[in-house]
Amino acid sequence: MNRFNTIFQSIIDGDEEKTVAQCRELLARGCRPVDILEKGMIPAMDRLGVMLSREERFIPQILLSARAMQKAVAIIRPLLLEQADGAEHREKVVVGTVQGDIHTIGKSLVGIMLQSAGFDVTDLGSNVSAERFIAQLRADGSRIVAMSAMLTTSMASMKETVKRIRQEDFGYHVHIIVGGGPITPSFARELGVEFSGTMMDTARLATEISTERREKPRR
User: Fold this and answer.
1) pLDDT digits (tens, 9 = 90+) for 16-63
2) What CATH number should be reported for the domain whose range is 88-213?
3) Where are the domains of the chain?
4) Smallest Cα–Cα separation from 94: which of 67, 121, 57?
């Protein structure tokens, strides 16, 4: 039996008390915080997204699961960041949910995963305007931005935000990664940006971008 099945199921069930207990038990058994996140928590949220689309779960149930997961994330987050302190901070990354969308769970987990991978993350939260994304990119000198949209109605806002960022002259190329429930590879191609199908994809893409920049020969 997969040792992460129990926390996976407790999140699916929206059982806050059991989720916290399972998280503490896994840590006590020596499981790495990043493994608990990647192999138990995130797959549970991915499954819930599928169940929601199939009407096997509904918003009130999803909210219970999200709250259960937030409690467990609060336990492992300091441990993940502690491990990240010893990692090489390759890039600064700006993350946020686009304007018109108040969903935060997926975006917050992406931020945690990026931090645990050694990135210096600025999380702008939800309902973020194009102006705020641009201002933060300039303030941080960030070359990577990851933005999410969980509603089909906020896809237009994402498109406008990407357009506005591309119109800005930063003096360097800004890599844009997009993801979220309604976002598809074809939509990302239409925008000319990177598509992230999962939270782990975002960290992988950011690492690839960072590595490519470091290895690219100077002219």
Assistant:
1) 999 999 999 999 999 999 899 889 988 888 788 788 778 898 878 888
2) 3.40.50.280
3) 2-81, 88-213
4) 121
